[in-house]
Amino acid sequence: MIDFSVILAGFGGQGILSAGKMAAEAALFEGKEVSWFPSYGPEMRGGTANCSVVISDEPIGSPVINDADVVICLNQPSAEKFESSIKPGGILVIDSSLFSYEPSRTDIKFIAMPASDIATELGNMQFATISMLGCLSAATGCFSRESFESSLYEVLPERHHAKIPGNLSAFDKGAAYAK
Fold first, then answer.
1. Distance between CA 179 and CA 95 in Å, rounded?
2. CA angle, residues 19, 25, 27, in degrees to nearest 5
3. Which residues are CB-neighbours of 3 under 8 A, at least 6 positions away?
4. Are strands 48-56 and 33-40 parallel, antiparallel or unpaired?
5. pLDDT exceeds 50 at position 1
6. How far apart, in whole angstroms, are the C-alpha atoms of residue 70 and residue 86?
7. What is the residue-averaged pLDDT of the chain?
8. Rounded to whole angstroms, what are the CA distances from 86 to 4, 68, 91?
9. H helices of 44-163, where?
10. Nearest of 152, 116, 147, 144 to residue 131 by alpha carbon
11. How far is residue 132 from each of residues 22, 57, 61, measured CA to CA in Å?
12. How many other CB atoms are found less than 10 A from the CB of residue 2?
């Protein structure tokens, strides 16, 4: 049985919940069982937001993650909060464009990628989380680029399908940081 878990965290409005939904949808395209469990503060935009995504070959008993394979953070408070939730040998990915961080643990892999700079370069700040999903995919193989592309057609409203090539560019740029 393969169980894979990821926590995505940051401030409301950064696309955390949407990114989690895209990752879950991509895994669905590969025939996996998935759970997507959003959590956010009452203030929404600007408040804390995180979501848990579990991907498995078998039915998932609980969407709650105690030991994550990967934690993706778009702000320092989230990195500080969730670093201890990573399994030994797991991965912490941060947006180094927004904050600098040094993990306190040596038993995890740390990837500092300039996701917001990538998004700025591509002309759309929504691409920051997409680039981090590219890093997630390349670092773990939890879903493929092809499945991610298919998920975009499901998750994005049709009026945003013209942005899919930009999303895929962001995904590819993020994947390069996993190497």
1. 16
2. 110
3. 54, 55, 56, 57, 60
4. antiparallel
5. no
6. 6
7. 93
8. 12, 5, 7
9. 76-82, 115-122, 127-140, 145-155
10. 116
11. 12, 24, 27
12. 9
Amino acid at 90: G
Segment 78-98 mean pLDDT: 97
Alpha-carbon dihedral sign for residues 136, 141, 146, 151: negative
Residues contacting 41, CB < 8 A, separation 6+ = 12, 47, 48, 49
Residue in this structure with the two tokens 């180094």, named with its chain if needed: 96
Structure tokens at 74: 């778009």
Amino acid present at 46: G
Q: Which of 7, 5, 10 is nearest to 126 (CA)?
A: 10
In the numeric block, which tokens belong to residue 121? Answer: 């370069």
How is residue 92 written in tokens?
Answer: 């912490």
Tell me the pLDDT band of 117, cut-offs 50, 70 and 90.
Answer: very high
Q: Given this model, what pLDDT does residue 45 score?
A: 61
CA 7, distance to chain mean position in Å, is 7
- Please give the model's pTM, rounded to 2 decimal places: 0.93
**Full set of structural domains in the chain with CATH:** 4-178 (3.40.920.10)
- Secondary-structure percent of the chain, ordered helix, strand, coil, rounded to 5: 40, 25, 30
